[in-house]
Design goal:
The structure is a homodimer.
Chain A lengths: L4 H4 L3 E5 L8 H9 L5 E5 L5 E2 L2 E2 L11 E6 L6 H7 L4 E6 L10 H14 L2 E3 L5 E4 L4 E2 L13 E8 L2 H13 L4 E6 L8 H9 L6 E6 L5 H14 L2 E5 L4 H11 L6 H10 L3 E2 L3 H13 L8 E5 L2 H13 L9 H10 L10 E2 L6 H11 L5 E6 L9 H11 L5 E5 L5 H10 L4 E2 L2 H13 L6
Parallel strand pairs in A: 1-2, 1-5, 5-6, 6-7, 10-11, 10-12, 12-13, 13-14, 15-16, 15-17, 17-18, 18-19
Antiparallel strand pairs in A: 3-4, 8-9, 8-11
Helix pairs in contact in A: 3-4, 6-7, 10-16, 11-16, 12-13, 13-14, 14-15
């Protein structure tokens, strides 16, 4: 039993600041909690019931201790409410804002102190709460009509910023990437990245962790927990507040100092903690790791029907430290027999504008044991590429056993091919370089099989 | 009269290899040429008419010299066809492949020699041809159902690779960016990037040039023409073949050596030729420059309702060499009066999750004269942001007179807001960093007004 189990998998929840109206945040959270399977205790002195659930006037009216209390009341009321939960909650999420981020450090210190004295863990304040689709748990104050939730999956999303959390989740939904747990921990008076990393080491629903970090409270513990997690599961960290203006912005955002980025960066590099450069790189890597298991090696094969796109992919491989080795003589001969003279049997393999769907599968069939990962590039503006490419590549992937990603250029049939590929577990990207960065995530975190 | 006018604005066109069927490349080109306003002479010995147009059995049957001849016949036939056009064409596009890119350098040399002797300019071989929506001219062998053409606009797209050309055009269509001229010049026996740069200096339909270059034939002339063009119009260059594998791939692609990238890079930097790093950066910059006129300065104001997103944008400004200066004291006071206490009146301005549409306009109104460019970030997963944001920002932009870009995070109403903003000329990007890179393109190419 981990101290954060009541947070991520509570059996009972109290919601302080529940409302009957979905036009209010307390109503949005209430509505989102209706899917929860455990006991739900909304607290609101004005109603006997809210959305069909019996409501309680006071915290003291709740008939039993809860695993998780959610507080969504003005900042000034929060200390009083927290005290009422002494001995009656294991974890508390303070979603309210109005603390250190607006200069109210005294109030925030009081929240921390009450939590320490009462012995419960606190997430927040000024935070978005959590989403655990494996338990149908959703404490967000954003309605599903505005933030489309990703399906259940294997990626844990850990973000200090609720904004970035919601942007990542929206983008992951769009990318068809599934989530194991998502949490926005805000000002982090208690629960912070290190606690979450430690928890996720043992979480069997989580295979990948992506983390947005503005400030680190305890550098030593951060490194230790990040390393421990990295050894078991791919961990990607996006650190923000890199320049003077970013650091100032991060400070007004959560009231915590971002610290000198150079220090963070060199420590991360030294200890093998994988940093990504920006939002898109985090998303692209998360998508790849949501779709496929990482594996070892750095030898990449590029199969394209657009010469220039293959060159851009090869360039990006170089930048990412991946190799694009030539095709072995004997396999080259076999491919020359299979293909017309004008196909370029090299790496990248260029199937040219005269390509047919099946040519990709033929090339993959010959090259599958020679490389560690594959980039498929299809420009479907030529007739030889049809919607069948999706189904053909899906079958080819089934027995491949190595990472494979795709770039499908914009065209009249791109959406259909993308659907088929992504349903088959091949992540599709909008440019050659992004596809290579997706593959890089899959090849960076793999271990050589024993 | 420029020597390339007959290429970009021909009054008459001959198509050698025309076909009656849209299932053949010669039929696709024929179909695409039907929109052309001038004289069209399809050549095909088997038909008297093709798609309603009188056809000719031989080149010699064409009753008058043409401005432009398009050749779409097997490589071995090309020299013979070219000879027939001696004195009967001003420009020729050889779309056929099967030349240096498959080792047929002798055949390619012959093509060059014939062109020199005959005195006409040759584009290609192994190329995609051109698209000039201002003249309804489209010689591509890709049907509109597969490659959606961008509308007419101010961006010229110059690409050695037909693949990259088609990817860029497809993506620009998706980005609602308009095109003045687009050309894929392939193996470049004659017309190459320098000729095109020189031509575009004086082309009044073109305000921006984006260029994908694999190899440069004449480095001195490249630098000279790129500089001359850069001084008049924003020019963005994506150079590929950067690493050993990319260079090898570029060689098999067009049969020209990519050259040492380091040399290219240092020369470009020295002469102020703006390089972009990858496909996405080229697209994002082209989109910004298609929407708005560039202007001078580097002082950026970020207005957001998501704290973390603002921090990422500020970080990217730093990486791009842009400043994010604090708000002047007196304006800060005015904004504090307008806004609730918990809004963070700083740069970035953080309107928080409690934002309303009109807050963006209020902030812009106070800050408009203080900064050189604006990044609007909206996370429309809170109720306070509605579809009205599009119309409000559109009006605010009308009198702004400075570059403004937006990042609208993924949500249930993002598509509608994006439509409104982009119709009003505000480019929308999928991440804070991409929005900043778009703004950077607008601020890099501006000149201080006299």
């Amino acid at each position: 039993m981990n101290a954060l189990d009541p947070l991520f998998a509570p059996r009972s929840i109290a919601l302080i600041g529940a409302s009957h109206s979905e036009m209010k945040l307390g109503g949005v959270v209430m509505k989102n909690l209706l899917g929860f399977n455990g006991m739900l205790y909304p607290v609101n002195p004005k109603y006997d019931e809210l959305m069909g659930v019996k409501a309680f006037a006071e915290v003291s009216d709740i008939p039993q201790p809860v695993d998780l209390a959610l507080i969504l009341r003005p900042a000034q009321e929060v200390p009083g409410i927290l005290k009422e939960f002494r001995g009656k909650a294991k974890c508390v999420i303070v979603m309210s804002s109005g603390f250190a981020e607006v200069g109210e450090t005294g109030l925030q210190d009081e929240v921390r102190r009450i939590g320490e004295e009462a012995g419960f863990r606190i997430v927040g304040p000024n935070c978005m709460g959590l989403y655990n689709p494996h338990r149908k748990l959703d404490t967000f104050f954003l309605p599903p009509s505005r933030l489309h939730r990703p399906k259940r999956g294997n990626v844990a999303v850990i973000s200090q910023s609720g904004a970035i959390l919601s942007c990542l989740l929206g983008a992951m939904k769009e990318a068809r990437a599934g989530v194991s747990k998502a949490i926005g921990y805000g000002n982090a008076v208690d629960v912070a990245e290190s606690d979450l990393f430690e928890y996720l080491v043992g979480d069997d629903k989580t295979e990948v962790v992506v983390s947005y970090v503005e400030s680190v409270r305890d550098g030593r513990r951060f490194v230790q927990s990040a390393r421990e997690l990295s050894e078991r599961k791919p961990l990607l960290v996006l650190k923000s507040g890199k320049g003077a203006s970013g650091q100032a912005a991060a400070f007004s955002h959560t009231g915590r100092l971002a610290g000198r980025y150079e220090v963070f960066h060199s420590i991360a590099a030294q200890w093998g903690i994988r940093e990504v450069a920006d939002f898109d790189e985090l998303l692209d890597a998360a998508k790849a790791l949501a779709y496929q298991r990482p594996s070892a090696g750095g030898r990449v094969c590029i199969i394209t029907n657009g010469g220039g796109s293959g060159v851009l992919a090869a360039d990006e491989c170089m930048r990412q430290g991946l190799q694009v080795p030539s095709i072995a003589e004997e396999i080259r001969d076999r491919l020359h027999h299979l293909f017309p003279d004008f196909f370029v049997v090299n790496n990248p393999v260029d199937l040219t504008a005269q390509v047919k769907d099946k040519d990709y599968v033929a090339a993959l069939g010959e090259l599958r044991d020679e490389y560690d990962g594959f980039v498929i590039i299809a420009l479907p503006n030529v007739f030889g590429i049809t919607e069948n490419l999706g189904a053909l590549l899906a079958s080819a992937k089934a027995g491949l056993g190595r990472p494979i990603v795709a770039h499908i250029a914009e065209s009249g049939i791109t959406g259909k091919i993308r659907n088929l590929l992504e349903r088959a577990g091949i992540p599709v990207y909008a440019s050659p370089e992004r596809a290579v960065r997706g593959l890089k995530a899959l090849l960076s975190h793999g271990r050589v099989a024993k």
